[in-house]
Write a structure and sequence with these properties.
Structural class: alpha/beta
CATH architecture: 3-Layer(aba) Sandwich
Helix content: 10-25%
Strand content: 15-25%
Largest sheet: 11 strands, mixed
Strand order of the largest sheet: 2-1-3-4-6-5-9-10-11-12-15
Distance between the termini: 25 Å
Length: 374
């Protein structure tokens, strides 16, 4: 759920960040048209809300091709008053859309436009910042109770508005890009989970367009305690009215269900995952869910995730590198990591172009999964 070195860090309310182009979006209806956007990153403000009630924004970068990249950013999660309350430090999720960590101008990897090897540099890019603590699928406000440091009972109001915020951005995309040639949907950590949920909706809207989902760093949450998050965010109330979700409740839903439902509902959707076999951040968040130390390993959870999805869909492509790195598509690792003699960059490029790629795993390498690729 995309933290970096800790879960996650201390936050103060930031001042608004300057941007090259700042335009207004009222709810889900955009006044700004894509034809009027400037070169480079454009910041589109909205009256939607982040977890603390601060405004939501998203980013668009016009590209030279007719293809789209829709990227869901990550940044932790929260499902209790203590976790969601910013007075509890360090907090476990990114709470503001305008943070540097949500600004794609600060990203590397697939957003490194100085690299001649960037396989998606010419795509029009839409980036959804993350600030609702609900992996982009929360159904709305939630009031938690918690015990304060002084022993008194306190209430914490949190806007788990991830579904509404994402839907507003996607409606803007649908209006402004009605006929893309190809779409890549991607996401990192919490954004990987959100992208798996929303990729099916995107593919349903564009039934004649090839859509590829490439989700990074969220395959290890095959936990028996995952219902804690689904209930906190009331995900069942925003599920698409699809037969693939028939009978699902907050107590039965899993993150694997998002991949399975999206892939089976939309025949034009191809799904893929990237994971680091010993992802330290996935380990930390699984412990936060309440899984006992020593009762699981991240490699086993990732394998369970792959097997469950593969048993229910036509195809799932996977790239599993060794090491503890969390998120590899946003840093230099994207161009450096190689598994079974194939670079991650080349594997990603093949998927983005609609090609078949092999399943690659550090398990099949002499060096194994303990260390990151050199």
């Amino acid at each position: 759920m995309r933290g970096h070195s800790t879960i996650i860090r201390r936050f103060a309310r930031p001042a608004a960040l300057a941007s090259a182009c700042l335009v207004a979006l009222s709810g889900a209806a955009a006044a700004q048209q894509a034809t009027t956007l400037s070169e480079g990153w454009n910041t589109i403000t909205t009256d939607a809300k982040c977890s603390t009630g601060t405004p939501y924004r998203f980013y668009v970068r016009p590209g030279a091709s007719e293809n789209l990249l829709i990227f869901f950013n990550g940044g932790g999660a929260c499902w209790s008053g203590r976790q969601c309350n910013l007075t509890t430090q360090p907090t476990t999720h990114y709470p503001f859309a305008e943070m540097d960590e949500n600004n794609p101008a600060n990203f590397g990897g697939i957003f490194n436009f100085d690299s001649a090897e960037n396989p998606v540099a010419d795509l029009t890019m839409v980036v959804l910042p993350y600030c609702t603590g609900d992996v982009h699928v929360g159904s709305g406000p939630r009031t938690y109770e918690m015990t304060g440091a002084d022993g008194t009972r306190q209430t914490v109001e949190v806007f788990h508005n991830g579904f509404e915020n994402a839907s507003g951005v996607l409606n803007w995309v649908y209006e402004n890009y009605p006929e893309p040639a190809r779409i890549v949907v991607s996401g990192a950590s919490a954004g990987a989970i959100g992208s798996s949920f929303h990729s099916g909706r995107i593919a349903e809207h564009y039934p004649d367009v090839p859509v590829t989902l490439i989700a990074d760093a969220a395959g290890g949450y095959n936990s028996p305690n995952i219902a804690l998050t689904m209930n906190a965010w009331d995900v069942a109330s925003v599920l698409p009215d699809w037969p693939e979700y028939a009978g699902e409740t907050n107590d039965t839903l899993t993150f694997e269900d998002f991949y399975i439902a999206s892939a089976n509902h939309a025949p034009n959707l191809t799904i893929a995952q990237i994971n680091s076999a010993n992802d330290l951040t996935q380990m930390q968040f699984t412990l936060l869910l309440g899984d006992a130390p020593g009762s699981f390993t991240i490699p086993q959870r990732i394998l369970n995730n792959y097997v469950e999805i593969e048993s229910a869909v036509d195809a799932l492509s996977t790239f599993t590198n060794g090491g503890e790195q969390h998120v590899v598509v946003l840093g230099p690792e994207f161009y450096q990591y190689s598994v079974q003699n194939m670079r991650l960059r080349d594997w990603f490029a093949g998927l983005a172009a609609g090609e078949q790629v092999p399943d690659l795993s550090c398990v099949d390498e002499v060096r194994g999964c303990a260390q990151a690729p050199q």
